[in-house]
Amino acid sequence: MPILQADKLTVIISQILEAAGARVDYADIVAEHLVNANLAGHDSHGVIRAAHYVRSIDKGDLKPTAEPEVVEETASMAQICGNFTFGQVIAKTATEIAIDKARAQGVGLVSMYHEGHTGRLGAYAEMGAAAGMASMIWDGVIGGPRSIVVPLNGTGRKIGANPIAMGFPSDRYGAVILDFATSISAAGKVMVAVDKGEQLPGDWIVDADWQPTSDPKALGQGGALRPMGLPYVGHKGYALAMMVGLFSLMASLPSEEQPPLGDRWGTVILMIDISRFGPLAAFKAQADTVIDFVKEDPLEGEVLYPGETEARNRRDRLAKGIDLPDATWKEISACAQRFGLEAVS
User: Fold this and answer.
1) Of 34, 33, 86, 47, which is closest to residue 192 (Cα–Cα)?
2) Which residues contact 188 (CB under 8 A, 6 or more apart)?
3) What is the pTM of this model?
4) Who has the most CB within 10 Å: 38, 139, 252, 340?
5) How confident is the model at residue 342 (pLDDT cuts 50, 70, 90)?
6) Bridge partner list, 137
7) Count of CA atoms in the C-beta half-sphere (13 A) of 309
8) 102 touches 231 (CB < 8 A)
9) Which helix (H) or strand (E) holds 281?
């Protein structure tokens, strides 16, 4: 497997996206986001997605130069139509607006629809934590082609992976970040297993006959992801996925008519200005105290706070480079060669 430094990989992905038709600033934003996901250890949301974005541009599903526009706005809320450009571009804009509104009003809520793949939600929670904000972010859909999760005790792809993220700043530990799909696994992690030629660590998915399987290829052959918490508490992941999907209705285009299921989906970003409740420094210090307390007296190994694994991965991969599966690198190389780029040679 090739090992690349983050800065070189960022340049490669940016050049590919620009050659595929993206605006230069968009290509840079998306490339940085993807590589940062790899740095955090979430290869499922990293550069493995680049070739898919190129294919989406080719098909006309992804508009690489379209500009997001604010279609509704109040002092504390906004709704953005992304015009089907890169989700990372729209979400970065939405996060910045939400932070600005939270600073002015105490809370800022921004929803976004008609978007491409938003990438790793935790990145936007990290933006909020860096600005001294607590945050909640959710991205959901029920029905339609983006749904890839089978309901508990059901059949069919009925629900999206419907991820949720939360963030809170601390002093010594940095950002405390929760970020996970409400399915057992994000679909991207199954993609990574396919590229690595590995079996899944458990029965994360069902095949086309709705039977549990560890074969990652089954997802692309008519199978589906399973709700988080199976086999024992899958009702919790299923219920959370349903609520994320319902709350995400706020992101979509308002209409008095009932659109088909799956046509209303999007992302909602909530930022809360912690300093409205007391000194920010005191809250960050208290967060450190909470983390210190939780990490005391481990039974075995080490107690980690949410986001600690990602922080460690980032330090390690910045120093040692990013390992890419051969299949992922082959797709990236094919894209570069298609556009006559020499960055991967």
Assistant:
1) 47
2) 42, 43, 44, 45, 48, 49
3) 0.94
4) 139
5) confident
6) 165, 269
7) 11
8) no
9) helix 280-295
Q: How much of the chain is in helix, strand and coil states, percent to nearest 5?
A: 45, 20, 35
Nearest Cα to Cα of residue 176 among 248, 103, 137, 126: 126
pLDDT at 253: 65
pLDDT at site 343: 57
- What is residue 142's predicted lDDT score, i.e. its pLDDT? 93
Checking DSSP bridges between strand 107-115 and strand 224-225, what pairing results, if any?
unpaired
**Token pair belonging to 46:** 């990293």
Q: Tell me the C-alpha distance between 297 and 199, whole Å.
A: 35
66 pairs with which residues across the strands? none
Q: Helices 308-320 & 24-39, crossing angle to 10 degrees? A: 110
Stretch (H or E) spanning 326: helix 326-338
Integer angstrom CA distances of residue 182 from 144, 173, 228, 296: 17, 26, 5, 29
Amino acid letter for position 103? R
Predicted local confidence at residue 258, as pLDDT: 66
Q: Using CA of residue 206, residue 310, residue 123, residue 46, what is the dihedral sign?
A: negative
68: number of Cβ within 10 Å: 22
- What's 308's DSSP letter? H
Dihedral angle computed from the Cα positions of residues 99, 101, 102 and 105, in that order, rounded to the nearest 10 degrees: 170
CA distance 61 to 84: 7
**Residue whose pair of structure tokens reads 């909470």 in the numeric block:** 290
Q: What distance in Å separates the CA atoms of residue 282 and residue 179, rounded to the nearest whole number? A: 25
- The helix (H) or strand (E) run that includes residue 133 is strand 133-140
Alpha-carbon distance of 236 to 152, in angstroms, equals 10
* Cβ pair 131, 261 in contact under 8 A: no
Question: What is the secondary structure of 3-32 as a DSSP string?
Answer: EE-HHHHHHHHHHHHHHTT--HHHHHHHHH
Tokens coding 54: 């190129």
